[in-house]
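ugh ok fine here u go
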Amino acid sequence: MKIATWNVNGIRARQAQLCEWLERDRPDVVCLQELKASPEQIPEPCKLADYHAYWHGGAKAYSGVSLHIRKDLFDAAPAFSHPDFDMESRIVQAACGNRVFASVYVPNGGKDYQAKIDFMKRLAQWAKQLHGEGREVVLCGDINITRTEMDVHPRERKPGIIGQRPEERALFEDLLGGQLVDVARTLEPDNAELYTWWAPWRNMRARNIGWRLDYVLASPSLAARATACTILREVGTSDHGPVVATFA
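structure:
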């Protein structure tokens, strides 16, 4: 099973790249963020017939997430919904039997830092509740927090900057708790080049001078079956690269 996440930074600008990538890699579950489009603005080529899909975008070209599950992955269609803390079209979830998939776009905190803090607290509560119910969870998306110093290129480390603050990282660890596992870091604990976002200047992406903001987080039972978690730096022209996790 392949589970992928990508902050497309505008699906209308990235529609051809998205279709090309999906055709090439054929992920079973796809989580997209920062659609910057309402459902009626989604380009027709992106509405792939072999996926159950939920497009969750607002009226303005801002935020927005989607979740796509291949139709032959489960016997029954997924039940899509939103946790009650959803704001600005930032999270969609799908229940497939005992398994819950979610695509999330955490606020970056630049305009309203407290909103980011509150969202992360509620996200952790959501994960803990599902874990307590015995559900298997896969949470994918742009968390907008670098988990540790290793997740920021040394040239980009700036004490006190949003996305690198100690209190944000503490909230990230609370989200993981005992209920979720950071798949990429578990598979590559010493890899200091797992960046998923690069500032769009000075050739930062080509030089891999970036931040790790995009994650595949999974329940321990699922994470134990992960065989790979790859960042596709070569795909697309978004400032983020797709992340693809493979599970046995």
